[in-house]
Amino acid sequence: MTSMWSGLEIARRSLLANQQAIDLTGRNVANANTRGYSRQAPSNTALPPHNVPLGPGTGQIGDGVGDVQVLRYRDEFLDRQYRQKLADYGAAETYVRVFDQIEQVWNEQGTAGLQTYLLRFQDALKGLANRPAQPDARVQVIEAARALVSRAQDMYWSMHDLRQNLDTTLAFKAQEINNIASEIALLNKQIVAQQAAGAQPNDLMDKRDLLLDQLARSAGATWTLQPDGKVNVYLNSQALVMDVAVSKIAIDRSSGLTSLTWANSNTPVSFRGGDMTALLDARDNALPNEYMAHLETLMGTLTREFNSLHASGYYPPGPLQPPGTNTGEAFFSVSYLDPPANTRADITSLAVLIEPGKVSAAANPDASQLDGGVAQQLANSLDGKFVTHPLTGLQNVSIMQFHAAVVGSLGVQAQRYFSEAAAFELQMQQADNMRQSVSGVSLDEEMTKLIEFQRSYTAAARMATTVDEMLEVLISRMGVVGR
Amino acid sequence: MRITSMMMGNTLSRSLSDLRGRLTGVQTDLATGRRLHRPSDHPAAMVDSLRVRTALDRLDRYERNIGDAMGWLGTADSALAHLTSILQRAGELAVQGANGTMSDTARVSLAQEVDKLLEGAVELANTAYGESFIFAGHRGDAPPFSLAAGVVAYNGNNGTVLREIAPSTTMQVNVTGSDLVAQTDLFTILQDLADRLRSGDQTGISQISVADINTAQDALVSLRAGIGARHQQVELMEQNSRDVRINLESSREVIEGVDMERTIIEYQQLDAAYSTALAVGARILPPSLLDFLR
User: What φ, ψ does residue A149 adopt, rounded to 5°?
Assistant: First the structure.
């Protein structure tokens, strides 16, 4: 037999459990739009039954609801999928921002691009070939050359600035990674402590998951969940957080460009996926080795061929000038980055210093009024097939063709990143939806539960009243027989 | 799959922003009339566009050069035409001078006219186009022919003046002074005629000068024929460049331009999709169980 009190006890437990469940529902509703919040729900278990040793009905009798456990809805597998996509998307999205700017530098549509300046320069030379003695034709050649040089320098400095900005972002993000890593280590510690005290640190875990999301996006971080509830975080298989210890990234900006090394081993930090991968690749490869180098090659080849051809021509000698000393001087003042091959010009120091009178238009030493032989050759040299570019595999193409090839391949590359980013974004959102489907709060669902719990609460209260009435009968009505 | 209200909101805002993005793109295309704004829009078309723009840009230069070439050739041709008529007049004077009945005084006056003809011929040979003397070779800044004591000297050189009139096609637009006197030296012929008229050398006039003048005229005719042929070629190139321009402009339009009908239809489809998404969103999002609980 069980005692009458046990009925009251069952009702009390039920009231408590339902009240807790309603609190939880309230918390879910409150956080329906909180980023990174995982919905929580009570997990009720019946108390273990106790044996009734005597009398009829011997066996086990249940004892109502047990202590309420709070469940946190979270799927580690979906987290992995989402973070993988997030890392891909982070990299692609950074590439999009970088290539958006490189495209603006090389753009020919709308504004006058490099090709326009090349063509103007060529046209000015052809004008000089027609009227070699005209001072205005000479001035036009110089002005067109200066405009071309200054356009190339604008392009160069834009890309240089972009590279510097990427570098600053890199340093900033590395600092952010360090901070997040420290926070995760701290959370690891708190979570383990709470669990040891028997509490369920669901909100701390949500916070940690949000940080892991951020790390996945910025650095392609991966993680493993330890049995004791801590997470270890890795950047391209190198430990960033181990238990409660952080392996810091040392950020050194003393050499101009940021270098990132592991503080404890002094080896370079590498990333797989995430913003950092794209930032590093764009800073160390796409800009200096491709688009800045393309410009250097273009201007290098142009100035080299132009100067050597210009030296073979003659300018009109001055009245007192000894004959034969009027051979062409250097048209462009230029230094090369790769002597003696001289294929890449140092764009920053490129200049046109020659005076209009010394432009060598003539092919013959007397440089008479209509001798524009060299001017025409100079104009044609812009179409000469001089450029051989091992990186792009182009061989013996003209300067204009090389420029068109660069713009074309830039377009293809940018287009690839744009569509990649769009695809990754979609995949990331799908993965996020899957995750939301498990962890997100559905208001309809919460309202339904609220009704359930409220009804249960009412029922439990009724149960208590009923037992109370029973006791009332027992206490005040029994034992008055024959009174 | 559980669908939460946050997911519905996300999906809606994502598709709205996607549609907005595409609408903006189509709007830009329609507003500018161009579909190429940056290399990544259509990389292959971008390269074509660069090529066509280069060709168009150069066409301007070729057309200007063609005009210039026509000026040079036309000037040379009319100078040579005038030289021909001078020779013709000289021929008439030679025939008159060869006549035995003419008095010496009359011959001297003929000789004086020939002197004037010679001066006129030198002036014509010093014809300038723009700031350059066209029969001077490269030395266009100074009159190439000078007449001193009945002797004509050539101070020009053999430089050719070229104009680029089509891709890798150049044309010589000048006739040098050496060309002018290559076959027969018309100045010497005129000077000889004047001398013979003065000295009354009737045999010399009728047997040498008349024949020389004829040869000189023939030489001028063949020079003019050459110029005429070049002029014709330049005219052909002018027509050709007009056709090329039309072709280039139309392919530029195809490469860079917007297909209006298609784009407007696309715009209307997107606009309809956008309005639908907004309307559906407005109907789906607000209701929840809360609306039905009392």
Answer: -60, -40
DSSP state of A55: S
B110, B97 in Cβ contact below 8 A? yes
Cβ-contact A391, A293 below 8 angstroms: yes
Contact A108 B47 (CB under 8 A): no
The residue among B135, B138, B164, B172 with the most chain A CBs within 10 A of its CB, best to mutate, is B138
CB atoms within 10 A of CB A217: 24
Mind listing the pLDDT tens digit for each residue in A123-180?
A: 999 999 999 988 999 999 999 999 999 999 999 999 999 999 999 999 999 999 999 9
Assembly ipTM: 0.87
Decide if A233 contacts A239 (C-beta within 8 A): yes
Q: How far is A444 from chain B (nearest CA, A)?
A: 5
Tokens coding B194: 């004047």
Nearest-by-CA chain A residue for B51: A404
Query: Rounded to an integer, what distance in angstroms lies between the CA atom of residue A172 and that of residue A174?
Result: 5
Average pLDDT for chain B: 90
Helix (H), strand (E) at residue B65: helix B43-98
| B194 close to B115: Cβ distance less than 8 angstroms | yes
pTM for the structure as a whole: 0.86
Residues 64-103 on A with a CB inside 8 Å of B are: 99, 103
Residue with token string 């046990």 = A6
Which residues 66-85 of B are in CB contact (within 8 Å) with A? 68
Q: Which residues of B119-139 are buried (b: 16+ CB within 10 A; e: fewer)?
A: ebbbebbbbebeebbbbbbbb
Instruction: Supply the pLDDT for residue A49.
Output: 78
Size of chain B, expressed as the number of residues it contains? 294
List of residues 6+ apart from A202 with CB closer than 8 A:
A38, A40, A70, A72
**What angle separates helix A202-219 from helix A135-196, to the nearest 10 degrees?**
150
Cα separation, A383 vs A388, in Å, equals 14
* DSSP code of residue B285: S
- On chain A, the residues whose CB falls within 8 A of the CB of B288 are 443-444, 447
DSSP string, B17-57: HHHHHHHHHHHHHHHHTBS-SSTTT-HHHHHHHHHHHHHHH
Closest CA to A376 of A118, A115, A132: A132
Tell me the pLDDT tens digit for each residue of B147-205: 888 888 899 888 999 999 988 889 999 998 888 887 788 899 999 999 999 988 888 88
* CA–CA dist A242, A170 (Å, integer): 24
Contact A369 B132 (CB under 8 A): yes
Among B155, B152, B158, smallest CA distance to B121 is for: B152
Tell me whether residues B37 and A110 touch, CB distance under 8 A.
yes
CA distances from A128 to A68, A317, A331, B61, B65 (A): 93, 17, 15, 12, 12
Q: Six-digit token pair at A274?
A: 């995430």
Please list, in sequence order, all residues whose beta carbon lies within 8 angstroms of the beta carbon of residue B176, skipping any fewer than 6 positions away: B135, B136, B137, B156, B157, B158, B159, B160
